[in-house]
Amino acid sequence: ITESKAPKALRLDLVGVALVTLGLLMLIYPLTRGHELGWPLWGHLSMAGSLLVFLVLVLFERAKARKDGSPLVELSLFRVKSFAAGIAVQLTFGIGLGIFFLVWTLYMQMGLGWSALRAGTTGIPFSVAVSLAAGISVQKLVPRFGRKVLQTGALLMVAGLLIYIWESDRYGMGITSWQMILPLVVMGLGMGLIVAPLTDAVLSEVPKEHSGSASGLINTVQQMGNALGLGLVSVVFLGAIGDRLAPQDVGPAFAEAFRHSLWWVAGVLAVIFLVMFALPARPRQHVEGGDEAVDAPEGSAGPAAGAVDTADRSGDVDGSEGVKEPALTS
């Protein structure tokens, strides 16, 4: 990675940090506590007020950019179509995952009465599938098929959710960890096809001088999405469970709420699939030491394709031409 630095020293944007923190607190805290407190009026007012705080943030960041060029959020990035679409995908994906992982845990431990160890080991096939698909997607699939890989991942996750809903309804409280392997593997493969190449797709058309700010925004938005998803659990999951349940009704109520929540997650992934059409068909690859990105060639077989540097800058002792691997934008 070539050495680089900003043309001038940047200043801390403490006001921007305060506005972001306040806006998120006003939005997420009422969502998290709303069901428990009976959805009080102040909660609704707080969530509505958060929109005004975010509006003030946008206006302040514009002024900050004009004043000293060091805003917390570089708003010009959102003029890049692929980046704006990618941020939307990252946010909604984070919301879906935030909902799924919490309600999945509650379903297994409180609904089915499984131990934490059994619930944790049940998720091993999911983790393995994510790892396998992530490696294959970046190395082999994305250079050849582009954004279709990410969209296939979204459809696979929807398919896995539908299988899970069917199995939970069919087997009821007698469902086993073995029976969960199929939907978890399908979902894991889909997630692996999304999470690994998504950052490269989002950053592929971002100006080089803003790549650091863009990368920071991607990570922040993902965490924001997770927090929103966790807050929405009280709406889509706990809201589907009665307040006063007999002990024998707790398990079935949690199972029903779990299936209800999975429909919400499937809907979120369907939206993600559509938004992905705004991503570049083939993310451009950034060549180490080069000033410009290059488009992945049609039918390229791997991430190094199209990134050959004919100048022997790699110091090969055998005198062969150095093949430069593209620097990962993530």
Describe it for me?
- A hairpin with a 6-residue loop joins strand 1 (284-286) and strand 2.
- The protein has 330 residues and is mainly alpha-helical.
- The protein is built from nine helices and two strands, in the order αααααααααββ.
CATH superfamily of the largest domain: MFS general substrate transporter like domains
- Give the tally of structural domains: 2
* Strand and helix order: HHHHHHHHHEE
Largest sheet, order of strands side by side?
1-2
What gap, in angstroms, lies between the N and C termini?
Answer: 13 Å
* Portion of residues within helices: 55-70%
User: How many distinct beta strands?
Assistant: 2
Low-confidence stretches: 286-294, 297-330
Radius of gyration of CA atoms, rounded to a whole number: 23 Å
Total helical segments: 9
Shape: flat
* Quaternary structure type: single chain
Judged by helices, strands and strand pairing, the structural class is: mainly alpha
Beta content: under 5%
- Average pLDDT taken over every residue: 83
- CATH first level of the largest domain: which class? Mainly Alpha
CATH architectural arrangement of the largest domain: Up-down Bundle
List keywords for this structure.
two-stranded antiparallel ribbon, mainly alpha, Growth Hormone, Chain: A, 330 residues, disordered C terminus
